[in-house]
Amino acid sequence: MPPPRRFAFLEDSLFRDTLLRTNYYGFVEFTDGDPNTGGYDYPLWQLSIDDLNDSDHDGIPDFSDDPATVVPPRRPRLALARGETNLLLTISGDVGRLHRILEATNLAAGNWLTNLSLTLTNDPQTVFLPLPTSGVRFWHATAE
User: Fold this and answer.
1) CA-CA distance, 108 to 124, in Å (whole number)?
2) Which of 2, 40, 106, 129 could serve as 87's disulfide partner, Cβ 3.0–4.6 Å?
3) Which residues contact 105 (CB under 8 A, 6 or more apart)?
4) What's the CA gap between 31 and 21, in Å, rounded?
5) What's the whole-number mean pLDDT along residues 109-130?
6) Phi and psi dihedrals of 35, rounded to 5?
7) In angstroms, what CA-CA distances link 144 with 51, 68, 71, 98, 99?
8) Strand 44-50 and strand 23-30: pairing?
9) 76 within 8 A of 117, measured Cβ to Cβ
10) pLDDT over 70, % of the chain
11) How far apart are CA 99 and CA 118, in angstroms?
12) In Å, what is the CA distance from 61 to each residue of 20, 53, 74, 83?
């Protein structure tokens, strides 16, 4: 796949049609509209963007809506208890968000492996883990 081309432009004038609130238009003048050919060709282009989408039904096209605010996930918290036949790992975090439970046998090595991935349906939520058969285990959670 060829690398994307970059076009240098001299000036632009972009407008919004207030009667057709979904239409944006303007003119863009490039230093050379087709660098693959010799000479100065195709310098002036008309750009038209028609956005008929209005997903939040506020009368403003999605293209003009303010960007959505991304809320970072709450840092998950873990609690561990031993049951008779397994471990009970309780996760507190954002309901509806994907959480990954990572496991390691040595904190200094930094080799964390994904033990479990789940989307929380409750806060807190308890999952069952098998009892370790040998050695020490450490758990850590991340939220996406």
Assistant:
1) 29
2) 129
3) 111, 135, 136, 137, 138
4) 31
5) 90
6) -65, -10
7) 30, 17, 11, 6, 6
8) antiparallel
9) no
10) 92
11) 5
12) 10, 6, 31, 55
